[in-house]
Structures are given as C-alpha cells and as structure tokens.
Amino acid sequence: MSADSLFRPLASEDHTVHIEFEGRLLTVPAEVSLAAALLACGIRHTRESAINGRPGAPYCMMGACFECLVEVDGQANAQACLVPVRSGMRVRRQRGAACLAPWQEGGDE
C-alpha cells in the first residue's frame, strides 16, 4: 500500500487565508492549526515564559505542553496547536502570565 495518499501539501496558492501576527499581515495555509500556519511562515517564537521571559514555540503539536500559547483576537491562553486557522485572525505572542478577569460576585463557581 502506498503512503502517498496520506500526505498532502500544506497549501496551494488558491487555498490560503490572511491573518495578522504581531501587526504583520501573513498569508498562511488554510485548514491547518494556527501553530502549523505560523511555523509554515517561519514564526518560531509564539510566547514568553512568565517566570524568566524565555521564548517558547510549538513543540508537541497536540495540546499537551502549552508551549504554543498565544493571544487570539484579544483572548489570552489560546493553544495555537488546537486552534484552527481562519481568515482575519489577529494573533499576538503571549508575554508572561495572562491577566484573567476575577470571578464576578454571584457568578457560577
């Protein structure tokens, strides 16, 4: 059995979308994860450690390691390897720990 049918190119000219990364417009492959799209464009640094500022990048590509955290459309702590890429996304590196809104009084706990 040939393995050729198991592999396909990431994108063709007519199968791409546009996203913004750190204010820069990128043309990326469609129908892949955000992490794969960023890696395909040469983006290797997607976050900075909250402890020492060390750069992080996609590593496991399956949601286990949290090295690919980014901010997507203003929402922090998105695992880029689990987020499907879509046209118009605005992506920023996650720098340190994200500030999360405190629980609202009377909210579900």
The structure class reads mainly beta
Instruction: Classify the fold: give the CATH topology.
Output: Ubiquitin-like (UB roll)
Tell me the series of helices and strands, N- to C-terminal. Answer: EEHEEEEE
Which second-level CATH architecture applies? Roll
Number of strands: 7
Question: Which labels suit this protein?
Answer:
mainly beta; 109 residues
Task: Give a written overview of the molecule.
With 109 residues, the chain is mainly β. It has one domain (14-93): 2Fe-2S iron-sulphur cluster binding domain, sarcosine oxidase, alpha subunit, N-terminal domain (Ubiquitin-like (UB roll), Roll). Helix content is 6%, strand content 28%. The chain contains one helix and seven strands. It has one helix at residues 34-40; strands at residues 16-21, 24-29, 47-48, 55-56, 69-72, 75-79, 90-95. The chain is globular and about 45 Å long. InterPro entries: 2Fe-2S-bd_N, 2Fe-2S_ferredoxin-like_sf.
